[in-house]
Amino acid sequence: MVRAGVRMAVAAGLVVALGTGFPAYASDPKTGDDTGTGGQPPADSGTDSGGSSGTGTIGAHIQVHQSKAGSSGSSTSKATSSNANWKPPVCWYEPMYTPEEYEEFIKSAYKGAQEPAASYAKKREEENYHKGDKGLWWQVQFRNDAYNEACPVTPDNWEIWVPPAQPKQDPHQLTPETLSELAYNSTKLPTPPVVLSPKGDQLVVNLGTRVKLDSDFDRVWTTADINYKGVQMAATTVATPVALRLDAGTSDADPQTCTYDLVKGDKGYTVDSKDAGCNVTYLRSSGSGTYPLKASITWKVTWTDSADPDGPAQLPGLPDGLSTFEENVAVHEIQSVNR
Question: pTM for this one?
């Protein structure tokens, strides 16, 4: 039986996102848990700042697992989409109840309910909860508990009946593509492990700034999967680092930016700009202050329709991801330096 906090989250989400009230449920008919508390962990609860792998839960039964992100001790941050218009799913239908469980849920949750909830319960009663039919009731779930985005599911259909041979899938029903988007939204990427030469507090006017990456820097993948009441599906989002961009943080540099392709080595992806045709060169001392030098990694993101990160890439694709690191650098006015 679905956790009580999930149903409260669904009801609250419909109230806020759609402006339609549903009853506040008193208790789970199976467990008696109080539904006034609880809820789900946030969707981005997968990986901690130490770079270790982690898990989390989205919605009711979607599990998220992420590979190790970066070397030990490296910091991570939530992946930023290169497409500002891309948004992860707000809500979707998940498998939830057998007909018998659904009858028990409706009778318990809507007992003494006022309109429009009373009519909703009556509608399901008239359908006899699909008892005797093969299939499951799927219920709307939300990505998080913020409810600050409108859910496209209408309140008169916040559960749908899904038979084994479904003629036409509901557009908001959970699919591997939906799972891939939720996995993308849950992914945490390591900050660029940039090594500057000279060091960031010893940069010099008119001397190119050499940049390297630690070799222990590899792709990251996140799997979102569900295995509940016979419904099994999974998707794995794979983020591969492809380029490093360095931004001087001031117009007093020539060039102000440089971009380097990353190369796959024995221990991960790396770059060394020693012999590159582009190295950020500062033209003016930072004086008593500093310049905010920024390093950004572009990640090519693909997804598979399984828990295997090496499975065939699926379409439609996902936007590139970005991870950034900013360092305040001091630039000095001297003519020579030992490197």
Answer: 0.83
